[in-house]
Design a protein that fits this description.
By secondary structure, the chain is an alpha+beta fold. About 20% of the residues lie in helices and about 30% in strands.
Length: about 190
């Protein structure tokens, strides 16, 4: 239409195509890593994940800030501290004998939630928190939120293992995560 300005009119075609492609590939990596894998579903890694009453560790106590709403579930996931393993398919990690843990809770009606997840031993791990707002097993870039302990001011694709790294000692390690949700076409940021 005459006079109508689109994103294409502001960005060169090559840059727009590259940006959209990089963003889509990065978020598909998040989506595929958090969907149910064949045979395991969302139960993979949950048996040893939830903290016991009066947990002494090694474990991570995560305080969550900035939820968009109280719908759906919160999924806290613990991965090995390696970029190739972070956000990887849970069943592949478990089949390879690598660390994967998951705790799923419903958001509380009010206040900032806290989730505790057990680590297998002291060391470095990567943590990701998904706010699954639509109740579907895969990550929806249009509705769901993501958070990592590094609390980046914005994400232009999947978070890195450096942004998600947590050092766990013998006891309880405490971290805060500020949730990020889609802002604009190409990024995620806190509300």
């Amino acid at each position: 239409m005459a006079g109508e300005r689109t994103l294409r009119s502001f960005l060169p075609r090559r840059l727009l195509t590259q940006s959209v492609t990089r963003f889509a590939v990065a978020l598909l990596a998040v989506a595929s890593s958090n969907g149910p894998a064949s045979g395991a579903g969302l139960d993979a890694g949950t048996t040893a994940a939830r903290c016991r009453p009066d947990e002494r560790g090694p474990a991570i106590l995560v305080n969550i800030h900035g939820l968009k709403d109280r719908t759906g579930t919160l999924r806290l996931e613990l991965y090995p501290d390696h970029q190739n393993d972070f956000l990887a398919d849970d069943t592949k990690l478990l089949a390879a004998g690598k660390t994967f843990r998951r705790v799923i809770i419903a958001p509380p009606a009010a206040g900032d939630p806290t989730i505790c997840i057990r680590a297998p031993a002291p060391g470095s791990y990567a943590v990701a928190l998904i706010h699954d707002r639509d109740g579907k097993p895969s990550f929806s870039i249009w509705r769901d939120g993501i958070g990592v302990p590094g609390n980046p001011s914005s994400l232009h694709g999947s978070p890195t293992v450096d942004q998600a790294r947590v050092r766990v000692g013998d006891g309880l390690s405490r971290v805060s995560i500020i949730m990020t949700y889609r802002r604009g076409l190409f990024s995620f940021a806190p509300l």
